[in-house]
Amino acid sequence: MGHPPAIDASSENAAPAQKRVVFVIGAGRSGTSSLARGVSALGVDFGDNFKRPSRKNPSGFFEDIDLLRLSKAVRLSRGVRADSLRLMEPAELQGPELEYLRQRARNVIRRRFANSPVWGFKYGRTLRILPFWEPVLAAENMAPSFVLALRNPISVARSRAALDPRRGRQQASDLEWLVSVVPFLRRARHCPIAVVDYDLLMDAPLPQLERIRAQLVLPESATRAAGVEEYANAFLRAGFRHTRFEDADLDTCEGLNPLTRDAYRLLRRLAADELDPRDAAFWDAWEDIERQMAAIAPLLRLLDLVENERRQAMINPFSPIRGLARLGAALRR
User: Where does the pLDDT of residue 239 fall: very low under 50, low under 70, confident under 90, or very high at 90 and above?
Assistant: First the structure.
């Protein structure tokens, strides 16, 4: 019996080549925007329909506006604010009621990135809604990769406090850090992952970009050299980094959440190439972080409920809380 005929890749019956998407993720104020700009210099197509720069980020966000709106719609459909803390279950993000958003996502991807073998999207909170994206990518025959922006949580809190003192309190910032980084990271275990420390990126951008390229197995191209040099020598500026804290500061910072400290230190071992994201040792250690997160899940849900009630009270002009707030403002005049 002879050998079966070889498959002709050019045949119209051949399966299309699998495309790739690079998600840039991380806690807010961790350098996700700067990192997304660097990943684009490696040849990953982020499109050109970006959210406009603002005081929060004058150099640009590098977020596709349509995919950003869609991601926020997924989050809001589950009753989760930007600063919400409650953990979501996978089933919440996979139900049939979200099919219209999944179809919208597929339409945007086809329209924007149909001709891009490797495209990217930056939304720091993508891990929180990762189960939503999984069937979308599977339907479009796309394989995900992840670049996780990592920054010392003390620096994160200081940067956040400059924009929002309430959310920038160390205790509050640490909880936001956790819910942006821990949930569903394990679901990316078998995907290419590059963890990039913000301080290391600012110190030596070229080696960090090469790490990303190698760990995500992105193609090399001499034509991208100019873009990488421009990013390292012109885009990144000393003014991007206003604070820097060392590992020892984590043990002396008042109010720092020990779970945030431990999760950061474990991820930084990936960023420093002391561990490989494919190592079972990392995921065994990460399992303890996940167990501790699960243990505080009821508290996180309660904090969300209390904050929701506070906001509703401030909106209602007849509420006692709103009345006391107005009285206090009048007395301060």
Answer: low
Residue 68 placed within a domain? yes
Residue predicted with more confidence, 153 or 4 = 153
- Domain span including residue 36: 19-236+248-295
Residue 11 maps to a domain:
no
Whether residue 114 has pLDDT greater than 50: yes
In three-state form (DSSP H/G/I as H, E/B as E, the rest C), the secondary structure along 222-281 is HHHHHHHHHHHHHHCCHHHCCCCCCHHHHHCCCCCCHHHHHHHHHHHHHHCCCCCCCCHH
- Cα–Cα distance for residue pair 286/271, rounded to 1 Å: 15
Largest CA distance in the chain: 96
**Rounded distance between C-alpha atoms, residue 70 and residue 231, angstroms:** 29
The closest of 184, 158, 141 to 293, measured between CA atoms, is 184
Choose among 137, 152, 150: nearest CA to 187. Answer: 137
Paired tokens of 15: 């399966």
Residue 256 has pLDDT above 80, yes or no: yes
- 167: Cβ contacts below 8 Å, ≥ 6 apart: 83, 160, 161, 173, 176
Domain with residue 40: its CATH number is: 3.40.50.300
Alpha-carbon separation of residue 195 from 22, 109, 147, 331 (angstroms): 13, 25, 6, 50
| Percentage with pLDDT > 90 across the chain | 79
Count of alpha carbons within 13 Å of 205, Cβ hemisphere only? 22
DSSP state of 7: P
- The count of domains in the chain is 1
pLDDT band at 137; cut points 50, 70, 90: very high
Task: Determine the average pLDDT of the residues in 58-77.
Answer: 94
Residue 323 lies in a domain: no
At 63, give phi and psi (nearest 5°).
-115, 125
Between 170-181 and 153-163, two packed helices, what is the crossing angle to 10 degrees? 110
Would you say residue 166 lies in a domain? yes
